[in-house]
Amino acid sequence: MDIILIILGFICVIVGIGGCFLPILPGPPISFLALLLLEWTEKSPFDSETLWTWGLVTAAVTALDYVVPIYGTKKFGGTKRGVWGSTIGLLVGLIFFPPFGIIIGPFVGAFLGEMSTGKSTNEAALRSAFGSFIGFLVGTLLKLIASGWMAWIFFTNIF
Questions:
Q1: Counting C-beta atoms within 10 Å of the first and last residue's C-beta, which end of the chain has fewer, N or C?
Q2: Which of 72, 86, 75 lies closest to 115, judged by CA?
Q3: What per-residue confidence (pLDDT) applies to 120?
Q4: What's the pTM?
Q5: 3-state SS, residue 97
Q6: Taking the domains of the chain in order of start, what are their residue ranges?
Q7: Nearest 10 degrees: CA dihedral of 130, 134, 135, 140?
Q8: Cα gap 99→103, rounded to integer Å
Q9: Degrees, nearest 5: CA angle 60-69-92
């Protein structure tokens, strides 16, 4: 049974790291699931304090992932359309222009989203798009750090 749990945990680690970039998948919660699966093996490498700490980190990073892009967009004068444009741009960029679409897509999407609100100048739309893009990058970086660290913990406890 341990082998099955470790294999499922390995899959969760990979999907969790992928979920840091794909807005459809919740990366850190899936990575945390890998730690829980490893805990259910006979080896049981974690104490309850470690699991609670990583559970809280996962919840905080997941919550911040929703707040940071909105904050970045609002801080730079953006709208909800800029945030939506950034998300749609990420998906389009990921599908049609990998791997560079992950970086370029959110910026272009946020810019087009801001232009659709009727911004009077391109400068205002660019500024808002930049804020949305920075918020997206910070959120992605936070998720990647948390999921990467959980992956490292997972693999160091397997071997």
A1: C
A2: 86
A3: 67
A4: 0.79
A5: coil
A6: 2-158
A7: 140
A8: 8
A9: 115
* Residue 112 contacts residue 44 (beta carbons within 8 Å): no
Taking each helix axis as running N to C, give the angle between helix 122-158 and helix 27-39, from 0 to 180 degrees, rounded to the nearest 10: 10
From CA 13, how far away is CA 109, in angstroms rounded? Answer: 29
Helices and strands, number each (H, E), in the chain: 6, 0
> Which residues, including other chains, have CB under 8 Å from residue 112's CB and lie 6 or more apart?
85, 89
How far is 151 from 27, CA to CA, in rounded Å? 11
| Tens-place pLDDT, residues 127-158 | 877 887 788 888 889 999 999 999 999 999 98
Most confident of 20-29, 112-121, 139-148: 139-148
> Which of 124, 27, 33, 52 shows the shortest CA–CA distance to 82?
124
> Phi, psi (5° rounding) for residue 73?
-65, -45
Nearest-angstrom CA–CA distance, 52 and 144 = 19
